[in-house]
Write a structure and sequence with these properties.
The chain contains no helices and 11 strands. By secondary structure, it is mainly β. The strands form 2 sheets. Strands 2, 4, 5, 6, 9, 10 and 11 form a 7-stranded mixed beta sheet that branches. A 4-stranded antiparallel beta sheet has the order 1-3-8-7, with no helix packed on it. Strand 5 and strand 6 form a beta hairpin. The mean pLDDT is 96.
């Protein structure tokens, strides 16, 4: 089992920045790819960004490229999502998840463990 706890969400104005963190405990963190997903009211959960177990490969949804950056610190068992130039449409609950394959790809079925989510609200 891997337990994941997100933090760093909140209310921010459009154009602002937030950094989300996801702390892992339980099983060894480093073999897992990690991903960030989000879900807005009335919408399906969507992939935001992913990172391989080593941190050597990162992946982003098209609408996040150039604005969001995913990173990880295996020594701290933590994955981060730096979000810049936030838009109203970025408002959602953000979830981190651990990918059993270690790759961090946009493949929902690969993610075995999920956090409870953190709310991000972008205001005008």
């Amino acid at each position: 089992q891997v337990q994941l706890v997100e933090s760093g969400g909140g209310l921010v104005q459009a154009g602002g920045s937030l950094r989300l963190s996801c702390a892992a405990s339980g099983r060894t963190f480093s073999p897992y790819g990690m991903g960030w997903f989000r879900q807005a009211p009335g919408k399906e959960r969507e992939f935001v960004a992913g990172i391989s177990w080593s941190g050597g490969s990162t992946y982003y949804a098209d609408s996040m490229k150039g604005r969001f950056t995913i990173s990880r610190d295996n020594a701290k068992n933590t994955v981060y999502l730096q979000m810049n130039s936030l838009k109203l449409e970025d408002t959602a609950v953000y979830y981190c998840a651990a990918d059993r394959t270690g790759r961090g790809l946009n493949r929902l079925f690969d993610y075995a463990y999920w956090g409870q989510g953190t709310q991000v609200t972008v205001s005008s």
